[in-house]
Amino acid sequence: MFDLFVNPWSLIAGLVLVSVPVIIHLINRMRYKRIRWAAMEFLLKAQKRMRRKMILEQLLLLLLRMLLVALMGLLVGRFMGCNDSLLGTDKRSTSHIVIIDDTPSMTDGFRSESGATSHAFEQAKKVLVEQIVPAAAQATTPQSLELTVLSDLKTTRSFERLNPTTNEEIRSYLGAFQANPIRVSPVAGLRRAQELIATQGARDVGRVVHFLSDFRAVDWSEDGEAIKQAVAELTAEGVQVHFVDVAHPFRKDEKRAPLHNDNVGILELRPAKLTVARYEPLEFVLRVKNFGAQELKDVRFAIKVNGDENKGRSVIIPTLSGNAEQTARFELTFDQVGTEEAPLDRFSLVSATLETGENGGIGADNVRHAVVEVRERLPILIVEGRPALRDQKDGDAFYLKRIFTNVLGGFSWVDGTPRDLEQLDLTNFSFILLVNVPGLSETAVQNLERYVRDGGGTGFFLGPDVNPRDYTKLLYRNGEGVFPVPLPDQPSPELSAEELLARKFRILEKKLVLRDPDVRKHPALNTLYTDERGNLSVKDAEQFEKYFGFVAIKRYWPVQRLGKWRDDPTITELYCLPNDQPMSAYEAEIRRITDGLPVEDPEFSRAKEVLTQLRDQLRRTALSSEPLSTLADQLDRLLADQRNEGDAAEALLREVWSHAKMADLRTEATRLRDRVKFGNPLYLAKEFGRGRVTAFLSTAGETWTDWPSEPPGNASYSPVISAMGNYLSGGGADENRSVGDTLTWSFDPTQYTATVGRTFLTHVPAKNGGRGTDPNPAPRVDLKEQTMVAQGGKLQLVFGETTQPGAYLFRLTALRASPAGGQSSEIPEYRAAVFNTDTVREGDLRRVSRDDVQLLAPGAQLHSPEETDWLEKLKNKKTDWSETGWIFLLLFLVLLAEQALAVRFSHHSRASDVDAAAPSAAAVMHRLSRTAMVPDAETVAKSV
Amino acid sequence: MDSDDPRRFLHPSTIAQIARLDLRARQVVEGFISGAHKSPFFGQSVEFVQHRDYVPGDDIRHLDWKVWSKTDKFYIKQFEAETNLRASLVVDTSESMLYGRGPMNKYEYACTAAACLAYLIIKQQDSAGLYSFGWEVKQAIPPRSNQRQLDAITKSLDLSRPSQQTAIRKVMRQVAESSPIRGMVIVFSDLLTDREDLFKALEMLRHRRHDVVVFHILDDDELTFPFSGMTKFEGLEEMPHLFCDPKALRQGYLEALEEYLVEVRRGLTRLGVDYTLIRTSDYLDAVLSRFLHMRMSDRASPVRR
User: Fold this and answer.
1) Alpha carbon distance B229, B227 (integer Å)
2) Chain B residue closest to A44 (CA)?
3) Does residue A911 belong to the interface with chain B, where contact is any CB pair within 8 Å?
4) Is the CB of residue B115 less than 8 Å from the CB of residue B153?
5) Subunit contact A944:B256, Cβ cutoff 8 A
6) What ipTM did this prediction achieve?
7) What CATH number was assigned to the domain covering residues A94-259+846-877?
8) A43/B249 Cβ within 8 A
9) What is the pLDDT of residues A381-440, one digit of tens each?
């Protein structure tokens, strides 16, 4: 009982005082006046009449007065209430560990009630200095605080003894902090909290971890398990974990996920290749996502080159649906190349900035950078199997050279030999073409593999000189090597002249077939099939593929679709040959499948007509001498899985095939269709490490095919080769690095010195769209030199100081054997890496639901800045009713009631009121007596 | 009160300072009549009406000698008010009249009022008598009109001390019996007695065609009941005592009082009694002048018997 009061003795005093009104009442009864009274009759009557009412009223008044005293007693005794009996029981000192999330999503802006714009990070600071610290400072035990931000977990600031002074210190310390572009998982913060607790040792202190963040759903879905474990470990150690969700709108007690602001972010700005020739148009892919639900119109992006809008352009996405991604493609040319004086000019920084204003959302994801190295020309290395035939029409690379030097500008053609692959530093080459090379030495293969793995590109063209065993053994290496497929022992047999002629006349039959409709989006082909917004354009493709009817592939290496390579996801079969088997080979199978069609099945009665028609067609074709492509087309129609626009029967057929009992037949029919339709593979692509490989299983020259040379079929050759060139030189460009990531590059210690110069190049777009005012819109900041670490026989460049989005440029010093003598000379070499905000994770502002938090972090408590209850516990002191206004309100009400009753029972009346209440006759008399009415004498005389 | 106001001497507290009742009465009456043009008391109330023939036995004082000298015939001059007004002042001297916290208690006030009226009546040559009563008539002075009568009345009032209960019926019978001639009965009382007795008593007077005037004198305290704090009310006239919180009872008291006053007023009005309620704090001159006013207007009333 006494535990419920801060001052229990005051309670006793209060209890004693409760009797005071009674005592006063009794004393009043003892101390009375005596009046000799004439009008006793009325008094007795009144007493008789009012007795019961009087007693009730008096009792009520007495009780109210007693209640008043009791309330005063509670107030003075400082009653703490019956709940939260644990409050203020922790006699230990408390160590608070505060981790503030300062990732980009914390810049999620909102307009506060006062109209000022603020964002989640500011709110987090506010919660700390206005709620947590003041609450903790009220505690009676010593409170210390360790503060760290998520982006810089290594730096921890300690504040001993929380009080208003230290609160001011914290405020000014936090003042310097801004939300950071670096994304760090909340798990890292919780782990850091664990470390900090561990360093405190086994002291007997209360430990509280406060994690102030915006609790985005993406963090919790990705790292849910890790968070769960970290929280479980913390709570197991007796640590209180408080999560404060500072994002706007503030989380209420609802179970659902709270509302979140809309946001538009640039997911990716990717150049087709990292190194480009001067004035060569370079395609960029701008991938944008609308994280909000509202559709946006005419979303405009400014593309700047080195911060200069005049060199860039603007890109408009006409419609950006809610929760959808959109891709835009655009081309840029670059005119600035490095010189000896300014070697770093070789790097051009391309920045895309969202120009259309967005409501709320975060700003960090509205800018994205890419860096491109611009050279006068891009060197490509061509290794020919028959160097004797170099530059001759019969030679293997004759047509390639024409394309790369005449048709496509920007490449510098470097002829090489297989030996060069062993010796040269291949990284200087944009890509390497191996044309009809019989085989490579092991060193050459290793060198080539390393080159490709680091982002290089290699294109294989085969031919009669190729040694299939070498290729399979060294280059394919059971799927481990760069070459995508194992080669058969023999190339395809030579075709007879009649057969070639016959084929030539079948111009409607495409001699090159897309293996799968989806490969049209493959980077090695997508420039052929897609428009500038990345959409497939069917008409253009039809037009383009018409030329395939005139192409003749006379011989090739027939690779069987068998074995491991078929399941390798990095290998894509782009083009294959049509099937040139005779129709009779498939007759029986066609018969079996057409018999299996559910023509008579009442369940598919709607499709009966279509099915019957197709069945009859297929049977007729199987018996005819028509080319297999006809059969393949009909099977395509039957299977209806190629999305042929405009075919009315397609929907019906798809319905039929989607039925469960058709599954077996469908698999069988699909297999048959594929066998009928597709011959052997011809053109394949493989992603190897960060690099890219293509393999063309016929010759590059006209030895085995007339594709490069014979019009009109050759019209389609140079686009495919050009796309291949772009594909091969674009290796390594896919890397989407995020600020905060660590860059690791390995170098050969014999070829590089350990010192690396570093420069940071970025462009910060002016706010409110101010243009052209900055004289140096893309400043370069010297980051000083760094020494590489030798590890495992390699020099390792480990760069982890990426704190801002932009391009980080590195100057390496390569050791080269000088051409003159055996002396090696130092040649500077430059590399660049671009780091951007992690838009995929940070741009998604959806928030985790309270349920999920409870599920994933069972011991932790989730609060919002509007909640204050939990702060009471931080105070760790006995709080009582006197700190709330309620008891005062109650007191006031009771007082009011007491006064009202007292006045009503006329215990507080004034003298003037008495007159007013007097009986009417007396009042009249009284009033008359005051009007000084003096009658005239006559009246007086007559009246008596 | 303004120091230039001639009525300042008529305030109860001023009058209370005048010890002798006759002087008090003079103070009051002269005070309130002083503003009139002429004194009505010297003009007599005898107005000529007609002459009639002398018959033997008539008082020769009423012979009109001027007519005799011209006509040698005896005529009697007849006047409107031939007879004196016989006013009996009946003053309650029961114990209840003792109450009063102001400058005058009810009894003193009643005495002063009675003295004033006696003074007025005697001044205009009418006769006034006095009856003071409690359980029975204590003193009776039959109505006379000479100057000494006023002295007798004031002395008598001065000497009598309130005591005993009221037995108004018995007293009124005695008054009625001692006043065989029709006259005016002016009662000064707090009427704190049995209402039935009161009405019966006054009805008896009215029955004998007396013109009855009742001055109902109550103290301010009795009308407003302003007491607070625990109080023991000790009943006068052998009423029981009551210990109570007067504030709590005030409402009920006032209600009972109101009922009583209404009952009295109605009852007396029904009997044709001229009723006036007076508070001890009221200015006497105002009370008297109002009374005179009422009397004058009532005289014209055909209802009055």
Assistant:
1) 7
2) B242
3) yes
4) yes
5) no
6) 0.78
7) 3.40.50.410
8) yes
9) 999 988 888 888 888 889 999 888 888 778 889 998 888 888 887 888 889 999 999 989
